[in-house]
Amino acid sequence: MARRIRRPLGPLDLRSQAILRAVIEEYVTTAQPVGSLALVERYALGVSSATVRNILAELEMAGLLSHPHTSAGRMPTDAGYRFYVESIVDASPLPPVEQLMIRHQFGQVEFASEHWFRLAATTLAGLTRSAGLATPAKPAVAHIRRVDLVAVNERMASLILVLREGAIKQAAVTLDETDAVDQATLNRVAAMLNEHLLEATATAAEATLARFDRADPVQRVAQRVGDRIVRILRDYDAAAVEEVFSDGLLNVMEAPEFAQSDKLRQVFTALENRAYLGELVGSVAGSGRIRVVIGAENARAEMHDVSLVLAPYGRPGRALGVVGVLGPTRMSYPHAIGTVTFVSGLLNELVDHLYA
Amino acid sequence: MARRIRRPLGPLDLRSQAILRAVIEEYVTTAQPVGSLALVERYALGVSSATVRNILAELEMAGLLSHPHTSAGRMPTDAGYRFYVESIVDASPLPPVEQLMIRHQFGQVEFASEHWFRLAATTLAGLTRSAGLATPAKPAVAHIRRVDLVAVNERMASLILVLREGAIKQAAVTLDETDAVDQATLNRVAAMLNEHLLEATATAAEATLARFDRADPVQRVAQRVGDRIVRILRDYDAAAVEEVFSDGLLNVMEAPEFAQSDKLRQVFTALENRAYLGELVGSVAGSGRIRVVIGAENARAEMHDVSLVLAPYGRPGRALGVVGVLGPTRMSYPHAIGTVTFVSGLLNELVDHLYA
DNA sequence: CGTTAGCACTCTCACCCATCGAGTGCTAAC
DNA sequence: GTTAGCACTCGATGGGTGAGAGTGCTAACG
């Protein structure tokens, strides 16, 4: 039969597309391979099961569907999901009621990006019944907003560093100076640093610090603290992802495909890998668009049974973060895409407001 | 047979105790019900399997062992574990090499309790191959150490509050004053608050703030910020547990008894319940001693398949936290107890050092 | 009188096999 | 091109069976 030759994922006639869509939507809800009869029963296809069978066979030839065994129904392949995702240009937007609810929630929490990204993850988890992921908006280069020093004892101080981007860093500084270092001195040091280092990047701060006079006790301490600050900033700049907050991993556990836990355990281990998450998030932040990674499209084998829907948020010049959803490959992509789009858009608004 | 009468968990002759111990230790390592033959083979009991069988039957009558079915070996009941735990007064202490390694790890991180309790959880997870739990050392009453204010825009400032106990709180303060509020003003406000509120508790701060002069613009802003501070302190004081950090839940997933994931999912859900963790941690912090909660001894049904080994750390008058381990009921209690004891002791040292 | 060898008994587990049913793929008719 | 009909395939289900592990009991032993 000539038409059974495997052909590239090319133009599919509308009816085939409709049936592919039906298979996917049915499979997403039932988690069972779907047969030709179930399709004609539940979807108004206007053709008989035999015709559907022919088309299912074609879709399988095209690599969009697969067959666990001869006498089972069809289930989508990763390529099938991919085709489906590409075909839904207008992902179902979130119903206005839910949009309002989410806006309200965000209105409740502190006005700080710190809280927002956590809430975003939680919200996404709840709405999609999958795991929500979010990273804080991290700038390409950090800027100093504020320095504060608190005396711990004569030899040690606690350094509190606020970045323009909202992050707060805390560190201990040991001061093995001969000078007595009391809180009054530290106040002068902090004042000096705040004056000279406001809005400075690591590089700028380093240059400024070099000009301090080591003969003056206050400036000497300031220099020492400043060195510590520069180190913190450099660490911060170097890290691809500062932190990935996740919520609702339990939701994913509930999916029948993860009933025996070893698969999911692999996913968890992969999620613990900072480098992997870093590059994933980095690629999304760079692209500037929502990204769907389906099953085996994931670089890591442990993630071959899950899919990701990720979107960047923030302002390209300033700070960028990523929010998204992790769920079983068999997830409702339109819903996930719609939800992630809305939440990332909302975060954009909030970040804009913060920087306005 | 008279001796088969179920008797209270009373004095057990030494040989019976040895066999109970052997059964538990064998079961802990193999995760399989253990038979009389395996016992005489692997443990130098000096008696035949028939004798062992008699004793096993007695132990079962006493409720210390159980029998999945007639032709299976014995496995410990919760009561059996309890008896075993009570009998090991001198839990195996951690080998000196590991002690040194852990000390070294703690030397590597920042000198702040913030990092310590996280590291404690991670360390415990690694050493016991179970989940490590830790809460930060939380004082009964929080004291203000330092206040800092950063201008966000004319109407808003970011408040940074450092507590004597090491915690840092951040909050946004809206300033709908008619005064122009720039960073210079905020600096004066912060200086004023630092001067008057140093070491103050919520109640003390409230009293001080009441005496501020509302006619003076700086004092008015200071009062407003102060109110926010008092609210933060009260929230902090009211919370039973600030945060429970856990690490290594993956280790628990690997145990064969959690191969099908629903049991473990229940445990996870129970762990998400703040109130439950709060009272658990509270009871341990109050008692002042290490506490072992075995299986069904847990108040919540979801936790009936896991055990906890928890110990308080900190200084009763000042700040108290809890560290511990969560693992399957079938866990090595001597090892867990030894490890938790060591880590809590180490944290005690560190906290003492911090407050010295 | 405690301990031990011996042995019948019980119960699970793994395996096999037959049955059932869902769903396919093909053919022939429309 | 579509559809009805039908043989075929393959997993799931359930009963039956043999092996093996481990017990509980009895009777002999020191």
Q: What Rg of chain A is obtained from the alpha carbons, in whole angstroms?
A: 27 Å
Shape of chain A: elongated
Which stretches of chain A of 5+ consecutive residues score pLDDT under 50?
1-9
Main sheet characteristics of chain A: 6 strands, antiparallel
In percent, how much strand structure appears in the residues of chain A? Answer: 15-25%
User: Which quaternary structure do these chains form?
Assistant: homodimer
**Total beta strand runs of chain A:** 11
The portion of residues assigned to helices of chain A is 40-55%
First-to-last CA distance of chain A: 64 Å
Order of helices and strands of chain A: HHHEEHHHEEEEEHHHEHHHEEEH
Category from helices, strands and their pairing of chain A: alpha+beta
What is the typical, i.e. mean, pLDDT of chain A? 88
Largest interface: A-B, 32 and 31 residues
Number of discrete helical segments of chain A:
13
Essential attributes:
6-stranded antiparallel β-sheet; DNA-binding; homodimer; elongated; alpha+beta; 356 residues; disordered N terminus; 49% helix; 13 helices; 3-stranded antiparallel β-sheet
Structural write-up:
2 copies of one chain form a homodimer. The first copy, chain A, is α+β, with helices and mostly antiparallel strands and 356 residues long. Helix content of chain A is 49%, strand content 17%. Chain A is built from 13 helices and 11 strands. In chain A, strands 3, 4, 8, 9, 10 and 11 form a 6-stranded antiparallel β-sheet that branches. A 3-stranded antiparallel β-sheet of chain A has the order 5-6-7. In chain A, a hairpin with a 4-residue loop joins strand 6 and strand 7. Chains A and B meet through strand 5, strand 6, strand 7 and helix 11 of A and strand 5, strand 6, strand 7 and helix 11 of B. The first copy, chain A, binds a DNA duplex (30 and 30 nucleotides) through residues 33, 35-37, 47-51, 53-54, 56-57, 67-73.
